[in-house]
Amino acid sequence: MQIKKRALIIKGLRQIGKTTIVKSFCENYYENIIYIDFMHNPSIKSLFNNDLNVDDLIVALSAYNLNYKFVPYKTIIFFDELQECANARTAIKPFMEDGRFDIICTGSLLGLRGYNKKVSLGISTGFEKIIIMQPMDFEEYLWAIGLDKTVIEHIKNSFLNKNKVIPSVNEKIMKYFKEYLCVGGLPDVVNVFINTHDLNQVRDLQRSILESYKDDFGKHLNNKEMQEINETELKKIMEVYNSIPKQLAKENKKFQYKLVSSNGNARRYSNAITWLEEFGLIKKCYNLTNLELPLDAYKDLDVFKIYVADTGLFVAMLEDGSANNIINGDLKIYKGAIFENIVADAFNKNHKELYYFHKQSGLEIDFVTKYNNELTVIEVKSTNENAKALKEILNNKNKYNVHNNFKLANTNIGDANGINTIPLYMAFLIK
Questions:
Q1: Which three-class secondary structure state does DSSP give residue 270?
Q2: Burial degree of 241 (CB within 10 A; 0-12, 13-18, 19+)
């Protein structure tokens, strides 16, 4: 039986290096590359408006750009910013059925439902393999700064075997982790920090990137694939965006619409929250009504927290000096929200859905996940204080039936009274 050929589609937030890494891949593995950028070369979109016959498209594209050479079985076609041309996505199916050329695509706004309002000729269902690309996780950050892989292996082995990290190594990795909290995982930002170690330059670039994101808020393409801004939608998205630091500064970080505006409610702002999540800038963390598997069956869709998808960007959203406070050891800034955000960030990059558990009695578990096929409860501490909620859960096993847990804190690996303590930086290892 012949395996159906599929195009690779890579979705993800702007400025995370999608185009760079795909170009590098194409140059390394293909003799011939056809690069088509629909965002910065919109006139080429018209070539896909007619009958999507592969041979006709090859002729049209070759006439459009003399550098395009379609060499069968040695050529990859790279559609950059695919969401800008609905019919180019439709063309994936005939190209895959033809089989002579490979296709790889990227899209920064592909996750936004209704972004492109053009009535297309259809989506190539079954002919696409979609991958969501994220900013660099902590392990990738350690690679970028040049940490020897034997050190990373020591950290991984310590986690798996529940052995303490060599104290001097633990201290050094925690230092790198605090830097990562402030720098985040956007490649250009990481590069600036590596070259300058100047957090002011880091913050300036992060804020510039955030401003560029705002230019996309409320944007869509009309039925002629021309850019338009929905001003009403833009206003609501901006109001939600501006409320994020206030939402996470609270002791109870449940999302509250009244912090968006005095007359805020779900009906008014739920679409704006969905827009920011589909854009890739935030991630919802849902409250669970019960500590049971499967977790998705017990999530309360109306009760949630939101976290920023890159913690470095979250720190840049805060007042000046926040990054320096973190580096200098003020770990209680924003009531631990930064450390909760980095754990949510790590889980999101591990493709985990985010859940927490809060009861009216005040009991709250920061994160609930599945680890080693078991329900696992997690508390996040900015220092190494007591994990009261974890203790209550573990002391009432008949009520909660929970046996697996982690306390992430500014400490080393340890086990006391059934609580498994690990350093905060090990969140990326909980997969």
A1: helix
A2: buried
Residues 74, 85: Cα–Cα separation, whole Å: 25
Nearest alpha carbon to residue 90 among 133, 40, 51, 129:
51
Measured in degrees and rounded to the nearest 5, phi and psi for residue 36 equal -125, 115
Q: Is 217 helix (H, G, I), strand (E, B) or coil?
A: coil
- How many CB atoms neighbour CB 370 within 10 A? 16
* 133 close to 12: Cβ distance less than 8 angstroms: yes
pLDDT at res. 332: 62
CB 423 within 8 A of CB 412: yes
Single pTM value for the model: 0.93
- 302's tokens: 């109306």
Query: Cα–Cα distance between 255 and 252 in angstroms, integer?
Result: 9
Q: Spell out a b/e string for 331-364, using b for 16 or more CB atoms within 10 Å of the CB, else e.
A: bebbebbbbbbbbbbbbbbeebebbbbbeeeeeb
Tell me the pLDDT band of 403, cut-offs 50, 70 and 90: confident
Report pLDDT digits (tens) over 124-166.
Answer: 778 999 999 999 999 999 999 999 999 999 999 999 999 999 9
User: Three-state SS for 28?
Assistant: helix
Q: Is the peptide bond before 294 cis (omega within 30 degrees of 0)?
A: yes
Say how many Å lie between the first and final Cα of the chain, rounded: 34
Give the Cα separation of 380 and 340 in Å (integer).
6
Nearby residues of 289 by Cβ (< 8 Å), 6 or more positions away = 298, 299, 300
- H-run or E-run covering 63: helix 54-64
CA dihedral sign, ordered 18, 109, 45, 72: positive
Residue 1 has pLDDT above 60, yes or no: no
Query: What is the set of domains in the chain, with CATH numbers?
Result: 7-132 (3.40.50), 138-215+280-429 (no CATH)
Residue 126 falls in which region: left (phi positive, over 0), alpha (psi -120 to 50) or beta:
left
pLDDT, greater one: 125 or 100 = 100
